[in-house]
Amino acid sequence: MGEVSDADSLLAEIEALGARLQKARESVGRVIFGQEDVVEQTLITLLSGGHVLLVGVPGLGKTKLVETLGTVMGLGERRVQFTPDLMPADILGSEVLEEDAEGRRAFRFLPGPIFCQLLMADEINRASPRTQSALLQAMQERKVAIGGRVLPLPEPFHVLATQNPIEQEGTYPLPEAQLDRFLLEVEVVYPDEAAERAMLLATTGAAEDKAQPVLTGAELVAAQALIRRIPVGEQVVDAILKLVRGARPSEDGLREVRENLAWGPGPRAAQALMLATRARAVLDGRLSPSVEDVLALAEPVLRHRMALSFSARADGVKLSEVIGALKASIG
User: Fold this and answer.
1) Where do the structural domains in the chain lie, given as residue ranges?
2) Is residue 78 within a helix (H) or strand (E), and if so which, with residue range?
């Protein structure tokens, strides 16, 4: 009897969360036009407790999306504009030497912008690798080590980074170790004509719609805990493992993988898919994830965790083609 009531309670919590999240999507949609997949995948990342990398050319609303989500999810937000001369202390903070009225000197820590719930790292690949690496510990462990002390970050803590495509001048590729710490890499593309028309009319008038808060930071933490309680069927677990393990080059693996990839995803990719499929199910008003969720999230989970070989790049092979072959192999 207890198990039945627990299951009923879980179902009720999932349905209530799904209704709240629908309101959150509607609130974001009043400000962001024609980026439904981008909004969905970013919300999935937040619900999964992860970080997201938004990739696209300037002017597609990446910064606006992050600001809007900060409002809708009720998170304390800070923004850092990454530039080539940005130093790690500009993000983490620094110790300053102060002297009191009696002449005694002591160091005082001035916290940097990373001490927030939602850090927007704008154009993250414009900063040097040294500065990019300053985020590594924070993104993985939710704490930073400064001046011999380890300081916890607020809860929840999410990094929403924007990146210009690598082909553009003045950018540095992100280290593989840092890329792996992003739950999803979300591609932001140009809006279609209808969305661009709606945006044009909505943003050039006397007043613009504003996003409204729907959740609080504490409610987001509770939602993240609920997501982890959602059951996942064996078929979905098998699909996740087959997809991730199949993306690693091996002699008996898929031909497209074996011939075109230099290296494939590690276990974090499977963990990311496990969480993200649950979050996607709840966003769609479903009570458990399906194989279709795995297929839908395969590309944003995998593409920044694998690399084409030199010969494949020379031949014009695209990662999306390799991932497409992987998806076809699991049906």
Assistant:
1) 1-81+117-123+154-229, 231-331
2) strand 77-81
The one-character DSSP state at 285 is: T
Tokens at 300, concatenated: 């944003």
Task: Considering only CA atoms, give the Rg of the chain.
Answer: 21
121, 189, 233, 236, 238 from 290: Cα distances, Å? 33, 26, 8, 6, 11
- CATH class given for the domain over 1-81+117-123+154-229: alpha beta
Fold of 231-331: Helicase, Ruva Protein; domain 3 (1.10.8)
DSSP letters spanning 90-155:
HHHEEEEEEE-TTS-EEEEEEE-TTSSSEEEEETGGGS-HHHHHTTHHHHHHSEEEETTEEEEPPS
- CB count within 10 Å of CB 48 equals 25
Average pLDDT over residues 35-58: 91
Report the share of the chain in percent with pLDDT over 90.
Answer: 42
What's the CA gap between 300 and 184, in Å, rounded? Answer: 5
**Cα gap 97→43, rounded to integer Å:** 42
- Chain segment 131-146, per-residue pLDDT in tens: 888 888 889 889 988 8
- 145 close to 92: Cβ distance less than 8 angstroms: no
Asked whether 280 and 313 are in contact (CB, 8 A), the reply is: no
State yes or no: pLDDT of 168 exceeds 70.
Answer: no
Rounded Cα gap, residues 234 and 139, in angstroms: 30
In this prediction, residue 183 carries a pLDDT of 95
The whole-model pTM stands at 0.89
Rounded (5°) CA angle 254-255-257: 70
